[in-house]
Backbone:
């Protein structure tokens, strides 16, 4: 099995990133997906005792952004401030525990970009030459004539491209081509999952790496960071954007912090921007004499039918509206997070539908988890006025295998970003507990006046629920905290070592409204 983010771990820090998202439109479910994956990893790593630094942010320069501002009748800086804030608001709403939100219009970032450009220019890795090519504005990518002819438009998005001829600055990527090939051969775990690694290797085998045009004349593109050695030009957005991973952790500003955090342990993104992260980025780092990130992980796309969900295709799903439509109060956010992480393996594409979201929520969260918690709390209330004090905690035979499997293999699944795998293990324990209630028939025990048996029966269930709530924390943090409060655990230290059978005998419940009422689909 592949291991995306555990090896090799340096000291106790863990630095992870999402892409910085374009601010030409508001965030959608695709952006939420990457950021929720990042949050799930960040919470898990914190539970394992790592000092986590989780970076996300927005990519705010370039022609595409300026055009979007004009279309909205706004001054460009006001426009990017507004849209960037929509991302911040969404991440707070989705309970994303990021540590820093970077914007490419932040002045410290601009300085890092300019200083890095200057370094590369002085080193001779940047030169000026005539440029002729075809430009796809939505992708912010250049192509040559044969690529355009073959694809009948932009090879990535199939849209129309514009022909451009002008003097520009180039970054000598070709100089590093053989180094990159060797590096990737020697580090087959650098790009994950394997299918994406093979894609990058295939790309490098079938294409000669040209130098990268990294400037745009200011007269054509005015919204960008000026080149420090020629202010008639601004820098290409990708060159600007990728450097956020360095500026976000103190590069060329706070040496101590930078040394502590760099290299990144995992860069998360979808497969659409793999080339920039697995080809451009390692070469930029090599040219800057910096260490390589540990892992570049490219997940799949959420689609509707055959179409990728994207703002330019106009089929976006708004996460705020989805959560509201679920009508589950606070737990609606968890339902969406759960669906995104449970429904498809992180490497594969997923098909989004409202029906699938509702069905997942009803079956797993309302029926299985919600019911288990609700029934157990009800019994504690009915039989013991909410306080269960048991003399013993006999772990039932049928609990042993699934709980041991969870304890032994959960971390491995999480390290491999196998979220459905980790959740299946948790839900196996939940279903065993539900079956235990059916089999044991506590109401019959109660009738037969076996009070102590009912006490230990409930204590076992509460302990099992306490354990699964810990393991669920990275996925559904709001509900995990609520479950723990309801079984009487007020102060929680989310640590994996606490997610074990503890021999706890007393549970004093404190009820809250049901977590996941069934959603009516009629
Ligand atoms: O590319 N399914 O920004 P962007 C899954 N600014 N993930 C999706 C998705 C979908 N349908 N749609 C978007 C950029 N994403 C650059 C990045 S980084 C130095 C610069 C997610 O706003 C996914 O993470 O187009 C994808 O890679 C990213 O949003 C693209 O965001």
Residues:
């Amino acid at each position: 099995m592949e291991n995306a983010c555990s090896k090799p771990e340096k000291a106790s820090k863990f630095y992870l990133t999402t892409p910085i998202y374009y601010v030409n439109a508001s965030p959608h479910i695709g952006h939420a997906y990457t950021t929720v994956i990042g949050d799930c990893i960040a919470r898990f790593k914190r539970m394992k005792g790592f000092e986590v630094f989780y970076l996300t942010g927005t990519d705010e320069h370039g022609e595409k952004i300026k055009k979007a501002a004009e279309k909205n009748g706004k001054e460009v800086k006001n426009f990017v401030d507004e849209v960037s804030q929509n991302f911040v608001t969404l991440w707070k709403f989705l309970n994303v525990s990021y540590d820093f939100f970077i914007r490419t219009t932040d002045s410290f970032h601009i300085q890092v970009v300019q200083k890095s450009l200057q370094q590369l220019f002085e080193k001779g890795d940047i030169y000026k030459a005539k440029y002729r090519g075809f430009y796809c504005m939505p992708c912010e990518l250049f192509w040559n004539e044969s690529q355009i002819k073959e694809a009948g438009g932009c090879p990535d998005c199939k849209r129309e491209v514009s022909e451009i001829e002008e003097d520009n600055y180039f970054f000598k990527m070709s100089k590093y081509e053989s180094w990159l090939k060797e590096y990737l051969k020697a580090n087959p775990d650098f790009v994950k999952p394997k299918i994406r690694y093979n894609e990058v290797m295939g790309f490098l085998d079938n294409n000669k790496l040209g130098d990268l045009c990294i400037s745009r004349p200011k007269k054509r593109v005015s919204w960008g960071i000026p080149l420090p050695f020629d202010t008639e030009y601004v820098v290409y957005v990708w060159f600007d954007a990728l450097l956020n991973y360095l500026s976000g952790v103190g590069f060329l500003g706070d040496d101590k912090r930078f040394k502590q955090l760099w290299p990144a342990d995992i860069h998360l993104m979808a497969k659409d921007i793999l080339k920039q992260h697995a080809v451009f980025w390692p070469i930029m780092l090599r040219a800057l004499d910096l260490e390589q990130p540990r892992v570049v992980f490219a997940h799949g796309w959420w689609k509707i039918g055959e179409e990728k969900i994207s703002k330019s295709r106009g089929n976006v799903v708004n996460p705020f509206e989805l959560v509201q439509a679920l009508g589950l109060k606070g737990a609606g956010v968890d339902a969406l997070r759960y669906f995104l992480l449970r429904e498809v393996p992180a490497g594969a594409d997923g098909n989004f539908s409202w029906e699938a979201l509702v069905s997942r929520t009803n079956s797993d969260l309302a029926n299985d988890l919600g019911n288990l918690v609700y029934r157990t709390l009800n019994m504690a209330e009915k039989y013991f006025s909410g306080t269960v004090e048991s003399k013993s905690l006999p772990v039932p035979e049928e609990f042993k295998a699934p709980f041991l499997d969870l304890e032994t293999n959960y971390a491995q699944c999480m390290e491999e970003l196998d979220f459905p795998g980790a959740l299946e293990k948790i839900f196996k324990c939940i279903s065993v507990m539900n079956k235990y209630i059916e089999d044991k028939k506590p109401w019959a025990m109660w009738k037969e006046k076996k009070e102590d048996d009912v006490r230990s029966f409930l204590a076992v269930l509460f302990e099992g629920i306490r354990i699964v709530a810990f393991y669920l924390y990275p996925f559904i943090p709001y509900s995990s905290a609520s479950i723990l409060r309801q079984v009487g655990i007020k102060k929680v230290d989310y640590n994996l070592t606490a997610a074990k059978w503890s021999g706890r005998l007393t549970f004093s419940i404190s009820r809250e409204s049901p977590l996941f009422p069934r959603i009516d689909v009629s």
Observations:
- The first strand starts at residue 13 and ends at 22.
- Residues 7-11 have pLDDT under 50 and may be disordered.
- Residues 354-384 form the longest helix (31 residues).
- The radius of gyration is 26 Å.
